[in-house]
Amino acid sequence: SMCSIEENILNLRRDDDIPGAEIPEIFLNYIKYKDDTMLNKVIEHNAQDILSMTAIASKLIDAYETPESLQHKEDILSQGLIFEKLNFPQKAKLCYNVLGIYPPAVERLAFIAKATGDLDEAIRHFSHLSRIHPFDPYADVELAKIYEHKMKDYDKALLHTNRALEKVSLFLSGSSMDLASNLKKRKARLLGKVEI
User: Fold this and answer.
1) How far apart are CA 165 and CA 155, in angstroms?
2) N or C: which end of the chain has fewer CB within 10 A?
3) Is the Cα torsion angle 92, 95, 100, 102 positive or negative in sign?
């Protein structure tokens, strides 16, 4: 609701305001019975809505233009994700870099680096994620892909495939069993490449 947005984003609390759900009935009473006793309250309510929407638009413009000035890391991360969806990777990177080693931001930086061909940067970020997530195989899977397909370093690809397999073996759920199967295929393929 508008009141919730006003309280949480604008730090504004309405006093002596009529609930917006009552406005249609007040307006109908005015049309039917010419009862204008509450019309001023409706006008005040609507005026406050307009002022609040203007203030919210201003906050959104500020978030777009200077995302690093946002107060909460989740907001900065969300703004980065918006920039990614809009295909503004440099603005997204600005957001994520402000967050330092916050893991979701490092993950996004890794994927942007991989997508833009900055493999050294992608490797650096995925390696960091692999170290801080000892039970999550996804960073090692990404490293294995980069080393196998982009760097043609099959020994390192095999190393990260084995690390990912070790991590997957700790949790044998349906999705991790599928991942384990794919990793075993990758390992077999890499063993063939290493022996050549």
Assistant:
1) 15
2) C
3) negative
Place of tokens 């440099």: 90
Overall pTM surpassing 0.70 (yes/no): yes
φ/ψ (deg, to 5) at 137: -80, -10
Which of 155, 187, 152, 156 is CA-nearest to residue 169? 187
In contact, 180 and 169? CB cutoff 8 Å: yes
HSE-CB for 133 with a 13 A CA cutoff = 21
174-195 and 138-145 helices, crossing angle to 10°: 30
pLDDT tens digits, 35-87? 888 899 999 999 999 999 999 999 889 988 998 889 899 999 999 999 999 99
CA distance 88 to 94: 10
Instruction: Look up residue 58 and give its amino acid.
Output: S
CB burial of 138-165 (b: ≥16 within 10 Å; e: otherwise) equals ebbbbbbbbbbeeeeebebbbbbbebbb
For the record, the structure tokens of 114 come out as 């991989």
Measure the CA dihedral 50/56/57/60, to 10°.
-170
Q: At CB < 8 A and 24+ separation, what contacts does 132-141 make?
A: 132/101, 132/103, 133/103, 134/167, 135/167, 135/170, 135/171, 136/167, 137/163, 137/164, 137/165, 137/167, 137/168, 137/179, 137/183, 139/110, 140/164, 140/167, 141/179, 141/183
